[in-house]
Amino acid sequence: MGPALVPVADAAVTTVPRIRYGPRVMRNDVTALRAFYATGLGQTAERMISRRLRDIWPDVHGLRVMGLGFATPYLSLFLSEAERVIAVMPASQGVFPWPVGQAGRVVLADETALPFADRSLDRVLLVHILESSEPVRALMRDVWRVLADGGRLLVVVPNRLGIWARLERTPFGVGRPYTASQLAALLGDAVFTSLRTEAALFVPPSRWRMLWSAAAAWETVGLRWFQGFSGVLLVEAAKQIYGAPLIRMMEGHRRSSIVMPVEGRRWQETSPGGHGVGP
């Protein structure tokens, strides 16, 4: 028997206090993230990162794509071509309905216990998650579990050497930034192989509108002369199959229930045992 859909209270946004403090990192909530991407600076950042993301994944026709963290600004690229697109937002971050005016494609879940079957996704995009998630290794190993053999992972993180990571006025300045070598080590520990590393977001995080309009020129100059100082790093990785024994214990583990907004309502999806199920 399929999962039961149980309605819970209506709400446009489920959220938590603005910044979450863990032992070592902070986290923006969904309200702060939405507010940033509604600004001119946020839209500029989205546009520059989307260009690089599209270079890495030019075609996702017929594929199952999942974004984890706050990936909805970038998942919109794939809505018209992927077989399935779904956004997962961490329970400590909050959630809101997406896409606007369509059936809901967002779930609220524990990032270390994703509510999907083993090897059920072809592409996984991580945005605004690694820098703020405390159980990073557990998160990455659950991503490994749900990613299909031959699947691809794409990680977007603040660059520790860039100016965006040093200013807390944007979400890229909150949490733990990474260098390319740190990210490669994290991926290797989670049994992924890094395939390519790209840089994006060279325009300064200024409130001056003239800079936003020149963002494309900043990207051109930055990619040619200052790649090491980009605002973000984008790393594509492949799942290593030969490392499966290290992760096998993660497969089939109990997955927590989730909350899914569907056309302005939120729904709790549970299996008979009370746990989340695959897509």
Strand content: 25-35%
- Broad structural category: alpha/beta
The shape, in one word, is globular
CATH topology: Rossmann fold
Q: What Rg do the Cα atoms give?
A: 18 Å
Helix % is 25-40%
How are strands sequenced across the largest beta sheet? 8-6-5-9-10-12-11
The CATH homologous superfamily is named: Vaccinia Virus protein VP39
Major sheet details: 7 strands, mixed
CATH architecture: 3-Layer(aba) Sandwich
Average of the residue pLDDT scores: 82
Structure description:
The chain is α/β, with parallel strands linked by helices and 279 residues long. It has one domain: 3-Layer(aba) Sandwich (Rossmann fold). The protein contains 8 helices and 14 strands. The strands form 4 sheets. Strands 8-6-5-9-10-12-11 form a 7-stranded mixed beta sheet, sandwiched between helices. A 3-stranded antiparallel beta sheet has the order 1-14-13, with no helix packed on it. The protein has a two-stranded antiparallel ribbon with strand order 2-7. Strand 3 and strand 4 form a beta hairpin. The N terminus and C terminus are likely disordered.
